[in-house]
Write a structure and sequence with these properties.
Blueprint: H1 7-22, H2 43-57, H3 63-66, H4 72-84
Domain Carrier: 5-83
Pfam family, one: PP-binding
Organism: Frankia umida
Length: 88
């Protein structure tokens, strides 16, 4: 993915990753869906999902941020921030 990915594109991609990695049906996923309280979600699956997001976008999400992410919107926000951050 490039840094030019739109919010909608990131939302679509993250939603698909959540679906695949946590197993929540797409029709039950919304941007404000609670990822940690969802049926079938556990800390391992959430970490695998975050790892997939990081690999997809070539970013690293700070560990402190990982443990505060509770919705798809939260993940999208962190991805957008990482993509717009200046390269070190």
């Amino acid at each position: 993915m490039t840094t030019a990915a739109s919010r909608d594109e990131i939302l679509r991609t993250v939603t698909e990753i959540v679906h695949r990695e946590i197993g929540i049906p797409l029709d039950r996923l919304a941007p404000d869906s609670d990822l940690r309280g969802a049926e079938g979600a556990d800390s391992v699956k959430v970490l695998v999902m975050i790892s997939r997001v990081e690999r997809t976008y070539g970013i690293e999400i700070d560990d402190q941020d990982v443990f505060t992410l509770s919705s798809i919107n939260d993940v999208v926000r962190v991805v957008q921030a990482a993509l717009s951050a200046p390269a070190l």
